[in-house]
Amino acid sequence: MKRVSLLFTLAAAAAFSAQAASAETLKTIKDRGMLSCGVSQGLPGFSSPDDKGNWTGLDVDVCRAIAAAIFDDPTKVKFVPLSAKDRFTALQSGEIDVLSRNTTWTLSRDTSLGANFTGVTYYDGQGFLVKKSLKVNSALELNSASVCVQTGTTTEQNLADYFKGNNMKYEVIAFAGADETVKAYESGRCDVFTSDVSQLYAERLKLANPADHVVLPEVISKEPLGPMVRHGDDQWFDIVKWVLFAMVDAEEMGVNQKNLDEMSKSDKPELKRAFGTDGNLGEQLGLTKDWFYRIIKAVGNYGESFDRNVGAGSKLQIARGLNQLWNKGGIQYAPPIR
Ligand SMILES: N[C@@H](CCC(=O)N[C@@H](CS)C(=O)NCC(=O)O)C(=O)O
Fold first, then answer.
1. Cα 196 to ligand 1 centroid, rounded to whole Å
2. Which CATH class, in words, describes the domain spanning 126-221?
3. pTM, entire model
4. Is the pLDDT reported for residue 7 higher than 70?
């Protein structure tokens, strides 16, 4: 009997200390009064600042949605611009609470960085941008090309695989930052610029004459992009996961920024659970009952964020494609809020 109760006490203590440790990130953020979010150094549609330092983008919306869930205020975010090379160290060191920076989920990143991916905000793939004047129609015509690429990316690795796999030669010209890479391409230091396709569209907008450049049809890799959190705080891991899921589920349930107030009064069981008028799911996450309302009020559902930042309502005009909801022909799918 004694032994059993000792074991029980030990188990309870372990559970308690795990809970205490797990509350750290949320507590740190609340004490600081601000979420620290790692983003790119300026990638239109995903994360870029305007001339007043106001950040927008699909990756930025994830940060704003998390801040809204915690503080009911999407402006309580400190954006930390990070190069591809420096992004993981910033997460490991605790400089940022979450990395939301067009980062591809791979096995080695998931296992070797002391961090976890929390979901997929954008299903991407790698492509090539060339000048139309080069008269190239396919990536398979790029034998002996010089290719501009950013260091510390999956892009560098896929580039090697693709050229090797197709018995083609190439010269790599690598840079640490996106701007340098694109400038080098524009000034003719290389024939090709390679990156995630969404980024090719985004970076093409920065060129003097975007219409002089074409994205080749080949997509040579899978680049599921998503936010990352440090290992060791499962509550925080859950929060970041479910903020993203809330945005996707809201779209599926037909909840958007315009009809939010009306929908929050609905009698539908799934809506009552999401809005916290039935149960306490938000509190189970360590947030408040109205967490879902706060998120959608701040950034809208996933589809609204997609359209505004990279889709039909944006300069990028990217089609939903794979990023459409699973029941509309795409693969965006979130577990149920229940
Ligand atoms: N998704 C790839 C590529 C990410 C990446 O950093 N791509 C460059 C290509 S332009 C970029 O976004 N740079 C933006 C920046 O450095 O701010 C990865 O996770 O490694």
1. 8
2. alpha beta
3. 0.92
4. no
